Structure prediction request, 852 residues.
Amino acid sequence: VSGTVEVAQLLFMLVVVLLLAKSASVVFNKFGVPGLIGEIFIGILIANLVIGDWSLLEALGLGGGNNPTENQYILDVLGELGIIFLLFSVGLETRVRELISVGRAAFMVAILGVVIPFGMAYAFMMFQDGNSTHAMFLGAALVATSVGITARVIKDMKLTDTKEAKIIIGAAVIDDVMGMVILAIVVGMATSGSADIMHALTITISAVVFVFATMLFCLKGVPKINEYMKNRLRSQKAQSCDADVQGQAWKAAMMIITCLAFAVISQWIGLAAIIGAFLAGMIFADNIEEWDMKERIDILNIFFVSFFFVNVGLKVDLSSITGEILLLAAVVIIIAFASKYIGCFLGAKFGDKSLDKSSANIIGIGMVPRGEVGIIVASIGLAEYAITGELYTIVVMMSVITTIVAPIFLCRACRKKYCGCQEQNT
Amino acid sequence: VSGTVEVAQLLFMLVVVLLLAKSASVVFNKFGVPGLIGEIFIGILIANLVIGDWSLLEALGLGGGNNPTENQYILDVLGELGIIFLLFSVGLETRVRELISVGRAAFMVAILGVVIPFGMAYAFMMFQDGNSTHAMFLGAALVATSVGITARVIKDMKLTDTKEAKIIIGAAVIDDVMGMVILAIVVGMATSGSADIMHALTITISAVVFVFATMLFCLKGVPKINEYMKNRLRSQKAQSCDADVQGQAWKAAMMIITCLAFAVISQWIGLAAIIGAFLAGMIFADNIEEWDMKERIDILNIFFVSFFFVNVGLKVDLSSITGEILLLAAVVIIIAFASKYIGCFLGAKFGDKSLDKSSANIIGIGMVPRGEVGIIVASIGLAEYAITGELYTIVVMMSVITTIVAPIFLCRACRKKYCGCQEQNT
Prediction:
């Protein structure tokens, strides 16, 4: 009856990837390196391990083989679902009141974390080749923050409850809104020669309305719904012997649907799917303890999220890197790291005087990973013929390296401040 | 960095399908119809709802649209993962000792549930068009049992612990082994004119070894591993502040990997993936209470399994059904229902004298749904030019109708025997 696909090869790929990723995660962890780096490492290994005629990528049906695109597509989708459920999970641990309480600091971190990287990248590129379109795209790529990577480190180390975590998450949401507006302006200027102010304004307004409406709903709507639900469940329990179990399955389904729906809305508006997933998580933050759903939702991460980090590594083609590109990339990576760190460090210090140096340090490092967002910016630039293939490769390298290196420093900084706690094993 | 795909449309499809499926499940349940029928109904609705130029299938990107195959492929894969996790979950609730204790009854149910349907289908087809190849394929299709559908009803009604459930599951495993052997023989006779006895023997032996080796491992290996693990975790706990949480995530990952690995091995041998998943579940059955993993693994079902049942409905193309086909299909459906029911009812009565009529009734109905297995048999027949397109359509209709109708009777029979308990809501 079902459209049962020929899944033997697909399941084989999934189980090998999961086994390698989880094992690497455990091994890296033993040596004090965040588990996700182990998963990215497995991705790089799969993409580049060739012994004679045999390539691991082909053996897993992820490239060169019979249906490489289908297996790769599944991996992309599972990874995307993974990062969505991860941010949903982070949202579940973030109460909206706490987020508002760090609002000023988050705003300052986001502003300086946008202005300084954009300015430095623009200045460097104008000095390097004098093409203002290239300079703007590099600027837009360096503005991006991929909060998924930081979220994973924070979650693995069980630090979601800290003030630093709240500021990073809050700043990432604001950063994403600003990043999308800048990208819209840059694309407009590259394609039509002038900034499409109306378009940029539309994105800004709809994004701000979406974020604030959700937060308002958390504050005002959720308590009322809870009241209603409790009364309803109480009357149900009298009727049926397992209304409680029914309620649990129903709640879980409702949470997953809300998470995916918010991810979709977020993408429609022009924001990242993970921002919507995070906001959806916040809706349930007040209930999650009582519902006893925390550990259950975490299983979705445990299954899905490794695929995301393996995928990060899979995009690294070591053979395409030349000496010339390497040199330029090194400079761009240093700028990417330094500009975001300085901007966000200063933002944290200005935004909240009570934060000490070690906290501002954590926030600065936490905002460094560009992840997939940097790549998306570069892909758009390449598709619009606004940047060269060389610059594209450099941006990809910048995104990958910041994603790999930042968690190592972040982990160390967190361990220094909150010593005694180790990150999770998988 | 990640291979972030253009997921907006995909996520939209997933969230609409989930929302419709879960809602229909709740509504159908209110009227005493099993929730999975509601989910299949949504599938039929999506496949066939056309208003003027607008079709729901196209709107969801599942057909006719820009990339119909990719969205459909994702749905197939998520559904397949869903049914795998569902059977894993059923395995988690099945201790191997209990399964062995119903071994004789399960074996009798499987034997008579194979011989009678095959004989009746063969006789009917020889009488109908006299083609022995057609007759053999219809026989093989009617032999199939898709335990997934029954497993869902049993699980929703919280009856996994009953003797009837154990017999059905045990018989389904044996039935699957015999069904695959028959299919191998039938395909061999249709393509080369003679039965490939060596091939059939290879499948039989490897399948039996796989099933018995796993059961032996459950009985002998698992207790030893448990002993070792407990000692190891105890020493770890002394070292780190959250070794317990580490252990939980590690256990969950290990369970998921084992489940998928067994599904792959099962497919390699020639059995259904779900048989492997069920056996993998049994490995953890003794630990699942203590590990507190039951509800967590269930989340994987809650997310994935609706896609499977929606998919069942999606394959129903109402417009392809003509009066002539309908008549022949009606006869085949009656044979499919009656032969399996009679065979398994008698098997249960002969196999275990202590079973009363109502228990044999439940077992008989529980074995009726042919699900995807019947369709797979027909697809192979069609691909080998051994059966006609008309007969293929009839087998698909038989599989769909037995899948839709049997749960309704099963639910009623279970409620009659175990009254007071209602099925789950989602």
